[in-house]
Amino acid sequence: MTPIALTIAGSDSSGGAGIQADLKTFAALEVYGASVITALTAQNTRGVSGIHDVPPDFITKQMDAVFSDLAVGAVKIGMLSRVEAIAAVAAGLDRHKARNIVLDPVMVASSGDRLLAKNAVEALTRTLMPRAMLITPNLPEAAALLDQPIAGNEGEMEQQARALLKRGAKAVLMKGGHGSGRQSVDLLVEAGGGVARLAGRRVATKNTHGTGCTLSSAIAAGLAKGLGLYDAATAAKTYVSTAIAAADMRSVGHGHGPMHHFYRQWRKT
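and the corresponding structure tokens:
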């Protein structure tokens, strides 16, 4: 059976993040991708100049259309900027008994522009976090969800991951890309389980637009193909690290350019 993954997220008009990055990731990893668009953003590699939210009832129609026809094996959730959108997505997930849900709590774009309304943070935590198999916050996002300072070391990263588990998450991948040091270390912490340390070489490049979107969608792709959570996260980490390292093979935009989603396929040609 063809593995199918669904992304529920916002559109990035410059193609480097959001729905576009997710669909590129699914395609690169040989998974069929479907999409539910929650918002339209006017953005490029320099920043976000506008956000147009999709009405909740149309989010519902998109979800019903996809789930009524496609055998969705995994779901990645990205940008949900409003409380009403969060409620519509949660209801759709329940109605269609969605599985293998990966929640990327997108709050701020790589450019620093806020993508999640402040009053929606609690709704995201209360409504979607318990429904997800995995949440994938970066260091600033985890700190914002917990109203704590940003973790400064791996011990603090684990502490914040466990605090998020207490708030309903089943597993947390704390992304260390915003940290420092020669390695970029992510921590996979599961409820009732230990800690898996996923380390990769930190790449010196400004082309990191869409890395969080890509990692979460790569994990969803692995889950759709039948991998367990640890194997899906490990494979996704390797894919993202290599795509970042290959980013400078291209020149796209004048700000934080995108990573190279198709580094495998383009090298073949």
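(Above: one complete record from the training split.) The radius of gyration is 17 Å.
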